[in-house]
Structures are given as structure tokens and as C-alpha cells.
Known about the structure:
- The protein is mainly β.
- It folds into three domains: 2-8 and 20-77, no CATH class; 124-145 and 323-340 and 360-481, no CATH class; 153-245 and 253-318, no CATH class.
- The protein contains ten helices and 21 strands.
- It has helices spanning 94-98, 100-104, 136-139, 234-243, 278-284, 326-334, 338-345, 402-409, 414-419, 453-460; strands at residues 14-23, 26-37, 40-48, 55-65, 68-78, 81-92, 105-107, 159-160, 163-176, 179-191, 194-203, 256-263, 269-275, 291-302, 311-322, 349-361, 364-373, 377-386, 391-400, 429-436, 441-445.
- Strand 17 and strand 18 (377-386) form a beta hairpin.
- The longest helix has 10 residues, at 234-243.
Amino acid sequence: MPQLYWSKDAGLPGTAEVTLGLSDLKLATIEKFDVRAGTLRGRGKGRFDDSGKKLASVSLDALSFDDTQLENVTVSWLGEGTAVHIGGGTVDAVPFLAGEDVHNVKLGERDRPAPEPVQQTAPEPDVVATDRDLPAQVRNRAPVVEAPPLREPRTEPYVFTPFALNAPRLKAIRIGPGRSMEAVSLELRRGRDGWQRIAINALLPRELWSPDPESKGADNEDSAQPDRPNGSAAAESQALQQEAVQVPAPGTVARRLSIDYGPQDAGGYRFVLESNDMGATLRALGKFDTIHGGRLAIVGTSAGPMPNAPLVARIEARDYVLVDAPAMVSLLTVASLTGISDSMQGEGIRFSRLIGDFTLTDGIMETELLRAYGPALGLTARGKIDFDEFLVELEGTAVPAYSVNRVLNLIPLLGPILTGREGEGMFAVTYRMTGPLDDPDVAVNPLSALAPGFLRAMFSGRSSSGDDEDVPSALPDRPDR
């Protein structure tokens, strides 16, 4: 049964008992049925359409297969689409997530031609990084080869099979090994041109919870959430801010994930993702296991249904710790920031805030500026991340001794001379990161760490014309005086 991503091995016994009802010598109803085959169990009833040749709907008191166990399930077929209502139970979503591309895209498969063979090239002259500067676990891997450029987003629209799912009271959804969500309310609706409605409210299981970092040096004067897109209600913005006022104490507040995507009255679609434990959310979704704690909000809009219409959004996170991230270890080691690198592999590096705007198109996130900063380190990033292919192509600035740089940045007259453009900091290195997202190749410009801010452009290859618009900032803006 490909619709359920289930099959029975040949030779295994199976039984089916069906009682049919006729009307005018045509099939009208399935009075009852009971199916047992392999791991599949199902019992219920159904009805046919007026022609008596196609099923119109099936209602099941219970349905189970593999690790999925459901109750009170109704499936209706309307035209070429399918609508499903689930009263409760547990869903193993792993096979559905793995097989989405194969079964849900009717025209224009996502398969792409194989990339051209990659030629090994020398690094750009302004970027210097030697293999011996890397930690042993990175140094001993395969030789570094220049990563190919990321693919361009698809321009031909996808055409989907219409589908709707309403499951307001699921016990749990399994997303992968050791990854799940509990007490889930789920609503999905997809048309031929893409997703029209996604609503998920869930609890994150305790085994995924992050240890709560203490809030030290957080910039309380800044809003804890991003600005709402055009046309959003002020009440929604206030509710979002109140949700993230305080990090939950261990064992007292449930960790939650909420996703809301749907049409706006003013046109287009609105997307909001919120969680009071960013680390647990990313672990549940199988994205990263290197973040502890954090309050997360992503707010954006799209002109039409995703994924055919790009999502333009802002991300903001507060009070999280980055722990044992290979890409960051490589960056800090190559940049000779060994003290911070040791912290990364120990208790982790604390960040007070992550903020930035991005566009998500066909699985590729592109940003002109993301900023993350904490007491020990500030980072900027611009570039692309391909979440479908799990590849990254980023460049930016790393600012060690963040608190010291911030103080220097605030000194009238002298501050701009020492730190250069707004937010750069006196002590900083520029970097470039390419390749697999979980273990990319990292190169830095070591000379930029030695230069005051106003000279750093000479070593990093940037223009020294004084145009600040394209220069990422790893420090908060200086307040007006």
C-alpha cells in the first residue's frame, strides 16, 4: 500500500473479511471490513460513489501498521485529492517524510542532474588557512577540495496532489530515531500549487529538553522577538513578546513548538514559528544537536503557497548556548581563538541574541546579514544554506572578546577609528565557510585579526570606499547621542 508506505513481505499470511451492500445492482457500501496482514490491522466501514466503481470514503475504528497506531480515522476522496481526519493515536512520520518527494510531486520531479566534477583549486589569495591549524579530528579527514557552488532555486513551479489532514489530538508523532513530538494538534492543507495551511502545536518530550542557560548579559533593552510583517495585528506581536519574557526553569515549564502558516486577510500568507526551547526544537526536527536552550521566533510572509512562493522572514533567538559544533570549532581554531574554542568543546559558548532577515526559496535559505552575539563572541554571516542538499556557503566576521569590543565601539570619536565600520570591533577576523553543513571547510584571513577596524578592509578584500551598507555587523548598533 504505497499510500501508507507499507508493504507485506511475500509469504506472510494475511486475511480480509468484507461485507458489501448493493443498491440498484451497484456497489453502495462496505458494511464492515476487517483486515490483518503482516503489521497491518484495520477494521471499519465505507461507501462508494454514485457510480459504484470508486470508494468515496472509509471510516476506521482502528488502524495500525508498523509503528503507527490510530483510532477513529476517516479518509475521503474528492476528485484527485484526499482528506484525512484522525481522532487520536500515534503516527510514525519517518516513512512519510522520507517518501514525500516521490509520491507527492506529480509533475517536475525534484530530481536534479548530477553536479559537474569538482576541480581542486587554490584558495583565494586574501584567505589563508592551513590544515595543520585544524584540530586533529578535522585535520585527519579527507583532503580539502573546493566546494562546488550551491544550486540555484528551481524556477519551474511544482504541481502537487491536493491533500488535507486534520488530527487535533494525537498522542505523539515520531519524526526519527529518538526524535518525536507529544500532545500534537496538527492541521495540513495543500493544493495543487503548494501548502495553503500548516498548523502545529506540540509539546517537546523531556528527553530532548535543553539545560537552561542562565541569562547573563542579555540585552534587555532589545525586544525579545522580531517585528511582525506588514499588516500583522499589534496584539499578536505583544503576545509573542510575552511568550519569550523568561527562560523556563528546569522541570517547571513544558517545552513547546508552535507553527502557524496560512492566508492573510490582506492577501498572501503569514508564517510564525515559536518555541521556548530552540535546542529541543532543532533536535526534534533533526536539524542540529549543538544548541542548548534559547527562545526562538521566526516570522515571515509569502506571496503565495509554499514552496512555490518564497518565504521572506526574520529570525530571532535569545539566550542559548552553542556546544561542540564542528564548523565553529574549525573557525575558532583556524582563527587562533583557542580559548573560545576550548569553551566550545566544554560548557559551550553563550549567545545573548541571534537576529537577521532571510529568504527561503525551494529549500535554500539566503541572507544578507545574520548576527549572533554574546559576552565572549560576536558573529556575522551572509550567504546561503541549502537545507535540501545540506550544504552551506557563508562568509562573515568573527569578533572575539565581544564585551571589550563593544565598549571600544561606544567611545566617541576614538571608537570609530579603532573599530572601523559600525559594529566591526577592533579585534576581528573574516571567514568563509563552504561545503557540507555538518562539517564544512572553513578559511579565515589571519591578517584581518591584527588590523584595526579601519584597515581590515585592505586585508579582507573589501572596498575601503566607506560604503557601510554591505558590511555585516557583529555588534549592536551604537546608540545615538
